[in-house]
Every structure is written in structure tokens, then in C-alpha cells.
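User: Need the bound-state model for cobalt (II) ion:
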Amino acid sequence: MIPIKNSEGIKRMREACAVAATVLARLREQVRPGITTHDLDQIGRDLIASLGARSACHGYQSHSRRTPAYPAYTCLSVNEEVVHGIGSLKRILRDGDIIALDVVVEYNGYIGDNATTVPVGTIAPRTAELLKVTEEALALGIKQAQVGNRIGDISHTVQTYVEARGFSVVREMVGHGVGRAMHEEPQIPNFGRRNTGEKIRPGMTLAIEPMVNLGGHAVRTLSDGWTVVTTDGQPSAHFEHTVLTTDSGPEILTIPRAT
Ligand code: MF3
Ligand code: CO
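Assistant: Bound-state model below.
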């Protein structure tokens, strides 16, 4: 069953998502050559605390008991890292890198989830194209989050848009419902067929998150148990919003609020 939020739940989701978006907007301003991903994670931790929220990533235990609890406050994934990169003093950003910033906060019992990928200095043209196409795929996927559509309409739209431009979508991780828990039903793959999957109804809160590789779609997880990288070492991009479904169309909740 996909949870449907009532007006109270929607109000709290709005607040949690606004906090997540504000943190992400401020964190991205800190990206520059020379900074370490550990420093960025500390800045993320402080931003989250300053807004009265808690990182939903820190201490997160995945369902596989072989994986340690997530040790950082944000997910920072550089170049060939796809998602769940752990901030490190050894990872110093350099001109030409890209970095995916994924911020998930819990505020007042509800969770807001969003991500973006930003260039560090000047990046290669094909990598710039990767970022543009992934962000556009997210926007097109969100447009499909219409009451009466099915989840597969989001999946199919993302996949066909990405693949038509010569990039590939990651299979192993998917978007998801989000609410009191970080991961609720449904799963939202970035590949699939039109008119398949669950029907979209008003009051769903969905984290839509294309992960797109410049090369092949294959990924593997590093020995830290978390960091997912492309098998071919080519760059990967990740953009994500939390969206509310309504009778008048999808509403993006992860928009920074003026504070
Ligand atoms: N946006 C990611 C997700 O939905 C954030 C994961 S946080 C972590 O899975 F704790 F799992 F690292
Ligand atoms: Co997510």
C-alpha cells in the first residue's frame, strides 16, 4: 500500500522538504576546488542542525545487515561515484570534477529528500551534457507524476529521454515514496514500461531520482559498504526532488523557503 498523506502530513512534508532544499541550496554554494568532501559534509551537518532538523542519513541502517550504519550526514559522490559517497579528508575537489550532493533530513517526524549534481570549475562538454540531461530527465519524470498515470510512466519517460541522448540509467537503485520513513512504497525505477506499476493518486509524496551514467549502466559497491561507483569509471549524475501528487498536477516540495 502506498501511503496517502492527509492535510497534516502534507503540511509537515512541506516543512521537511523546504528544510532539505534550503540545506542543499546552501551546501552547493560551498563547492569549490580545494575543499574536501569531509569539509562539505561537516558544513551539511551544521546547516541541518541550524535549521532544527536531523540528518536522516546519519546512522541509517540498510536492510542488508552486512552493511554498516551510514557514517556521514550527507551523501557526496564525486565523478564515477554514483550515490552514497562518504565525505573524506582524502577526497579534495579539483577543477573539472562533478559532485552529487544528496541531502535527506528529518524535521518534525517527516522526511525531505533531494539531490543535485554540480560542476567544480570547468568540466568537459560531455560531462556538462550529462548533468543537463539528468536534470531534464528529472523534470520530465516529475511531469508524469499525474493522478491517473502509473509509476511506470515516470520510469519509462526518464529512461527513453536519457537513452536517446546516449547515456544510461542505473538499475540497482530506485526512487521511492517518502514520508515518516525515508523509503516508503512505491519503488520508482528509472527504467520501465508505460502503463505499468501502481496508479498515482492524490496525496502521495514521491522522491523521483534519476541516476545517469555517461558510459555503461553497470555499477558496483565499494568495500566501505556504501559508495556506489560506475564499473567503467566514467562519471555519473544524480538529481532528485520530493514531489506531492495532487488533482491539479505534481507539486515539487523540495524548494528552498525564504528564511
Ligand atoms: N536519497 C538517498 C536514498 O533515497 C539517500 C540515502 S541516505 C543513506 O536512498 F543513508 F542511505 F545514505
Ligand atoms: Co532518495
